[in-house]
Amino acid sequence: MQRVSEADPTTTFQGVDAATGAPLEPSYPISSLADVDAACAAADAAFDAYRATDPETRAAFLEAIGEEIVALGDALIERAHRESGLPVARLTGERGRTVGQLKLFAQVVRDGYWRQARIDPALPDRQPLPRADLRLRMVPLGPVAVFGASNFPLAFSTAGGDTASALAAGCPVVVKGHPAHPGTDDMVAGAIRRAAEKTGMPAGVFGHVRGPANALGAALVQDPRVAAVGFTGSRGGGLALMKLAQGRAVPIPVYAEMSSINPVLLMPAALAARGAALGTAFVGSLTMGAGQFCTNPGLVLAIEGEGLEAFTRAAVEALTAHAPQPMLTGGIRAAYAKGTQALASNPAVEQIACGLEGDGVAREMARLFTTDAQSVLADRALGEEVFGASSLIIRCRDLDELKAVIAGLEGQLTATLHMDEADHAAAASLVPLLERKAGRVLANGWPTGVEVSHAMVHGGPFPATSDGRSTSVGTLAIDRYLRPVCYQDLPAALLPAELRDGAAGPRMIDGKSA
Amino acid sequence: MQRVSEADPTTTFQGVDAATGAPLEPSYPISSLADVDAACAAADAAFDAYRATDPETRAAFLEAIGEEIVALGDALIERAHRESGLPVARLTGERGRTVGQLKLFAQVVRDGYWRQARIDPALPDRQPLPRADLRLRMVPLGPVAVFGASNFPLAFSTAGGDTASALAAGCPVVVKGHPAHPGTDDMVAGAIRRAAEKTGMPAGVFGHVRGPANALGAALVQDPRVAAVGFTGSRGGGLALMKLAQGRAVPIPVYAEMSSINPVLLMPAALAARGAALGTAFVGSLTMGAGQFCTNPGLVLAIEGEGLEAFTRAAVEALTAHAPQPMLTGGIRAAYAKGTQALASNPAVEQIACGLEGDGVAREMARLFTTDAQSVLADRALGEEVFGASSLIIRCRDLDELKAVIAGLEGQLTATLHMDEADHAAAASLVPLLERKAGRVLANGWPTGVEVSHAMVHGGPFPATSDGRSTSVGTLAIDRYLRPVCYQDLPAALLPAELRDGAAGPRMIDGKSA
Predict the structure, then answer these.
(1) Are B440 and A488 a contacting pair at CB < 8 A?
(2) Which chain B residues touch A474 with a CB distance below 8 Å?
(3) Coil, strand, or helix at residue A388?
């Protein structure tokens, strides 16, 4: 396995206890640019051998990563808790999700749909010209740079969804560990290395660099051997990576999940039937994980009336009693404070609730604001993400005004409808608009739960992601790291195994599933 | 139907007879920037209605376009022949391909695989958390800007592969007609409009602008309602569109097919067995359509020896006797002359054959050059495309040197192996390298024939295309204009028809084809 940066670190860095702000032992070496170069060289050298692994071998590697993560035991959860401030129960669930995600991608590799095998048999007697034998499969793009995310130190980080889907596709991965959880990152990177060793993967299939400087990530994205980038984080960070990737001699795809305010639409009949219950449930979704979910409901839209008033009263009550947990980092806390202050000082906006003040550092009160639709239509900035437990209720006069607000929103990860049967006609007129704006449209639930499955989409039009044609969660995420290759009249001996006549696995023959 | 620019043209432009350089009647109005705006507005307005069309209706529209093109009769072929200089037989074949392509996409729309319908049924009793009902389908991106290509005035132009695949996906299309064949473009645009009217498509489903200025295309790519771009043309043109698309407030995907030199590898046993025959056949592929195919074999690699000498002798003989046809435009001819002069004046390169001189304007002699592998390794510019009937034979000392040349090449549309059974071991070591470089790997054929089918890939790593994850020919081309949307717990009444329980069509349930 490629272990970079440990030979001669020029300097080191430490994690920070999210609850106290105190530095956490031990120190970790900061990777150098030479480390980035070495990791990319090793990944490139491993690429052909790794992509040639048979499905069972590759699946076993993915499963072994999960087993090694489980074998880290409670020490992993404890470390992630201290570094992120996220509750132990949440992190335990996140570990289950991370391991389950690796297992699911192992199954994807075995099932073989991802190969998209297609065969158009030769038609030697066709007039006016014969048809050659044509066979298509997906092949991996090459080494993938993955950036760990701060808000999911397990499921979106070192061995998270980007890593799992890229490895499943047959791409070596070089992870840039997130500097907010270096201990968690170090433990998980070790688990991946052990799994690779135990399952006989080529050296270089997993590379790892770390440190607080942006230059490290920039060097990774600019390395000519890197073929794609997976990122979850801020809009500024994602845009910077896109720019770097597009400025290369050979531009590469960047899958950056960046910014989403996740509108929740409360339809009149649902509001009338259970406005207060919705208000309470809404605050539960809003404050989960200190509101630090990509799918946090940062915008609520409803038509004015008694239902909305009941919703608002219940939400204010629940939020006012909410005790905060620490935010992930001081930087995120500062950005949250700045964003909520901007809302509070906007004359068109009223702050209607504020959560309890927390003890210790990095605890930020949840906030609830309200405004009217005309103000939002006049000031697009009101639709921008404030990362954390802040939300804005937009009072609309009627359905048309609500639609106008939706039409003016940027791309989103999710859009949610709360509705009853009497709302269906109005909702039906909204769905086409919502599916143009968001990657996931959900009904009578909250967007903060993201299932890892075949039909999930965790993506959406820009700026929710840099590439709305993709998802970063669910099995379709593997498609991000693949490209098609056609083999024309290649002798059977030279064809990839899965494209030979009679090979097992799903395939399309002459355009029909076979 | 949206007909732009005919109300008050500020000026007009004319086609040019490729054989004589004389202007062709009639004049056509140059579209204004207001015309671009109007076409994009109409396309955007048509989007929801068009994407909601049922498969049969949309398929009928695509087929009707083909019927209207056929109904144009020989006048279309004659006009295309005069504007492009391409032979009538070739254009007749190209018309068949264009119509066949529309029919194939109609079948794709009916078959429904492109929707990628996926259902993960709800698991209400799952522990620790229930699973919601999740359903996924692909939806179209939005209005697509298509740039007609000069070298295929039918199959890659106004109603070509980009238009057919985008319309199949449910995207309205705004075509920027290629100014080198305005008459052909005008006739085909009329055919599309008539087909749209006859099949009851929403106004705006097809928009059309034209004129020689780059500003027109730039405005189209920058229009905020345009969601994707399809382009086949020069590297400079493609890079310019990529930059414009990335510089938008909302960046959009550009599918530009740009530049490829299409290496042909002659393996020793094949060369020994039939070197001379290969040389003659090679010149046939090289000079087809004045070498103006994207997949023209611009590079030949082989290990030195008697077989290569026989190949070269036969190629020289065939090429020397080749009488040219006019090139597509004066600009393309000038670029070809410049590129071949640069090769001829390179001290490391020897010109070994030159075709016959043609009569009239825009006829450029075919050229054959040779050099050795070390020179190519020292000068990457020798691997750059010269668009036209020019090719460079690279003499390699051994297989390792040949591999080094391949490894140094940029991304390609195709890579070709000529081989016998005794070559298989060496070829097997080349295939992994070739599939990293090219979108199509072919054996014992020539790259200039591109089948329109399910398993075709006409794409490849940058700079062959701007996006190596895609193909612009074959049914997989539809994927370029789609994005996934997940519907979570949506009541059946609000679900898209193809995602309802019991709906017809292919789907994946819980990760398995059903």
Answers:
(1) yes
(2) 486
(3) coil
Q: Are residues B443 and A491, on separate chains, in Cβ contact within 8 Å?
A: yes
Q: Which residues pair with A412 in a beta bridge?
A: A438
Tell me how far the alpha carbon of residue A1 is from its chain's centroid: 26
In the set A294, A385, A401, A410, the catalytic residue is A294
Q: Which of A139, A439, A485 sits opposite B485 (nearest CB)?
A: A439
Chain A residues in contact with B511 by the CB 8 A cut-off are 107-108, 111, 113, 453-454, 475
How much of chain B is in helix, strand and coil states, percent to nearest 5?
45, 20, 35
Sequence letter at residue A154: L
Contact B235, B385 (CB under 8 A): yes
**Interface contact A432-B52, CB threshold 8 A:** yes
Task: Answer yes or no: are the C-beta atoms of B235 and B463 closer than 8 Å.
Answer: yes
- Evaluate whether ipTM surpasses 0.90: yes
CA atoms of A125 and A122, how far apart (whole Å)? 9
Q: Is B46 left (phi over 0), alpha (psi -120 to 50) or beta?
A: alpha
What pLDDT, in 10s, does the model give residues B393-407? 999 999 999 999 999
Q: Which residues contact B453 (CB under 8 A, 6 or more apart)?
A: A120, A131, A134, A511, B104, B474, B475
Location of structure tokens 């399809």: B230
Terminal-to-terminal C-alpha distance of chain A: 40
As given in the structure block, the two tokens for residue A485 are: 């290759």
The per-type count for chain A, helices as H runs and strands as E runs, is 14, 19
**Catalytic positions of B, written as ranges:** 257, 294
* Residue A120 to residue B453, Cβ atoms within 8 A: yes
Shortest CA gap A249–chain B (Å): 9
How confident is the model at residue B10, as a pLDDT? 62
Mean pLDDT of chain A: 95
Length of chain B: 514
Of A136, A435, A442, the CB nearest to B488: A442
pLDDT tens digits, B20-55? 999 999 999 999 999 999 999 999 999 999 999 999
Judge contact between B397 and B421, C-beta under 8 A: no
Tell me the backbone φ, ψ of residue A25, rounded to 5 degrees.
Answer: -80, 155
Domains of chain A: 34-122+141-258+468-489 (3.40.605.10), 263-443 (3.40.309.10)
Helix (H, G, I), strand (E, B) or coil at B235: helix
Mean pLDDT of chain B: 95
Min distance A8 CA to chain B CA atoms (Å): 33
Residue B304 at interface with chain A, using a CB cutoff of 8 Å: no
Q: How far is CA B333 from the centre of its chain?
A: 21
Taking the CA of residue A143 as centre, how many other CA atoms within 13 Å lie in the half-sphere pointing to its CB?
Answer: 29
pLDDT at B310 over 80: yes
